[in-house]
Amino acid sequence: MRFIVFVSGMLMTACALAQQIGISIERIDGPVLIASRISGVLRIAAKTTLELNAAEISLAGRTWRNVRISCPDLKQERDVLICAQGAIESPDKVPLSFRYSTLTKNIELVLRPAANEEWRVSMTGTTARVITVDIHNGALAHLKSWWPAEWPGPNAGALSGKVTFIEEREARVHGELTISNFGFANASGLHAGEKINAVIALQAQQQGEQWRWESRLDWKSGDVFWQPLFISGSAHSLNMAGTFDAKRFAIEQGRLMLAGIADIDVTAAYDRIASKLTVASVKSNNVDMAALYTKLIKPAAQGTVLGDLRCDGHADFSLTFKDGEIVTVDTVFKRISVEDNSGRFAFFGLDGVLPWHREDLKTAKLHIAGGEVLRVPFGTFELPFETRGLRLRIRDVEIPVLDGKISIADFASSGEREGWRWRFTGAIKPISVELLATALGLPAMRGTLSATIPTVSYAQSTLNVDGALLFKVFDGTITMQNLALENPLSKVPRLTGDIDMRNLDLDLLTGAFSFGKITGRIDAEMKSLELVNWEPVRFDARLRSSAGEYPKRISQAAVQNISALGGAGAAAAIQRSFLRFFETFGYSALGWSCRLEFDVCEMGGIANVPQGYVIVKGGGIPAISVLGYNRKVSWRELLARLKRVTEGNVIVK
Amino acid sequence: MRNLNPIRLGWLALLMLFAGNLWAQANLEINTPAIAALQASMQKRHTELAPFYANGAIGLTREGFIALREANAVALPQRQQVNGLVAADNADRAAMYREIARANGKPEWENDIRTTFAQRWIDKAAGGWYFQNNAGAWTRK
Amino acid sequence: MRTLTVITGLGYLLLQGCVTINIYFPAAAAEKAADKIIDEVWQLKSPNQTAPAAPKPPQEK
Fold first, then answer.
1. Phi-psi region of B93 (alpha: psi -120 to 50; beta: other; left: phi over 0)
2. For chain A, what are the domain ranges?
3. pLDDT in tens, A211-236
4. Contact C41 B26 (CB under 8 A)
């Protein structure tokens, strides 16, 4: 029996019964494999056995210690050594077989970690070594060792395919791998993928110290969730080409084709020593906003204001990064329209160029063809603005609203740590209240709305209006002051303020709300008004006849309606008396007050009488007085009564 | 006697305290449009959240909110949706605590109300749901 | 225990003629309110609260 031992530096000892050869190798060096301090024993008896122990084996940068290779039945056929049923332990035991030709020095090594799984490595050639890795159903979980710690780890999937490494003066690699059922996830589950099927083709060529590489990834199916984005694979692909060396990894040309969403061009350079992205750019032209919104943004924006929109139009995007941070974002809008499906806001025909830089001042000019906010439409306007980092500034803009205008001057905003804040000064140039009321679905009213607004500011989720909003309606004036709106975008916006009304023409007012005709004028004030979710929860209101000389008449219907507000039954009294023969009555003053708190309205009139108060004080001929006796009424009950009255459903017997 | 008896004063204070106490105990105002709106919104959302309480994807925090504690228990396509539901529910919860305090004219009670709710959510949680114990560790009920 | 502190504290402060206001939080009422809202939100079948538990018949020995 003759064995050729294919290692150098061996040590031989002889034994009486069987031949035993001790093996000791200091180091084996290959392009991807390094093994050191290998020791072993070759026993030649009825069966030849080989036991090898490597203190350290490192493969492509990953190191194992104490690796044991055993071969219980080593055979020789001519110049080929065959180990059919060996094993490698490190410490998990994996079945292994190899063939080694002492003549050609060709090696074929097969690892079978699981049934139906095979990693076949072969080395052939003498002048140019060719290493081929042939994988059949290779578990991707084995690659965990090579996975960067900060990446979500693989937890499922198999790899099949072949990679060839040709070692010449300048090495070459090419291969194609099919990934099936691949899954990965980080501990929090916020970066994860499932059931991914893809094909990767790659080739690389050494050029001096550097490698040039090219790859193509076809993502055929499977899902990826990268918070907050979810992308479902279907014919997406990523083609890349670039270079890498010991210091740097670069994507010189990259194109990510997200089928049905966008084609995105990418370049990047990654510093391998500092482990960071030094520069990168992302660019995409003519992105279909409808597809981008429904496939990417909508799922990510659930539960926010942007969660249920209809989007249309196209846009170009271009982003650059430096040292891991966004430096510039350039956007071009092309006929974009956005509509909130719950009708809160909409705009259409957005056009323009929007440049942005992290530090530099950029000016933009957008054109908006129109839209609506809370069902109030606005018209075409130009929106010129300046940005510098997170600061935004608009010097002057005039937005046509109905037949008037809202003008905004000196709008300035900044994104601060506590959240977004902005402020502006502005004015409302007369808007027809009639049109506004129609748009808001309110009863028909006549008049105008105008205002000068010294400052509107928004900070910490609260909108504050300094100055007064002035409405000219019902031939009188309404001023609103101290307006503040907390959490405007939440489910329960809270509006507080004080309202003062002067000289309202009751003729026009009662006509608008079909309350029964009253002739005269009133002043009203509402202090500490608080609306939550646009419903009043608190106020201190009082109204009374305005000072001055003017005709004062009240119709029978109005008297009945006022009485009906006091509760059922009161209205019937008038019908039983002679007063029913008159259409209208004279009065000298009327007034009513309501202090609302905890759903209770505490009422009063212009004067007190025993057990009650005067709402309408008679005067002229025929005179009529209306007294109230209930001091407290449930606000909801009062509203229900008012609704019945204004809908003309008063039951009169 | 012009001297005030401290013991009598103590009793007076006690009496005042009980008067306030009785009023408060009898009635904490929760009958406002805002609270009703929030309650309806949370009730509607709960049908979507319930399966995720049950499978442990979300849990009740000791601060009176909910949190996504095990995202891997949610199917991938729904993960962001559940994220959104959690955020929306927490916004409603925060608003609810604030509104109850406000509705009672005591904005300074907001934290106490939140703490009370935190305990009651946990007490009333179904078996198998997860909650944070006093040390902040997730515990299965 | 806390209530007691508040009472004595209040008495003491009144004597001092300098009153700080101790905020009293109605814990039981808040719990009741919380229960009512939670039952609604989670659609819990509330046990019949109005009917008191029937007194147990005296057991004969």
1. alpha
2. 1-111, 500-646
3. 999 999 999 999 999 888 888 878 89
4. no
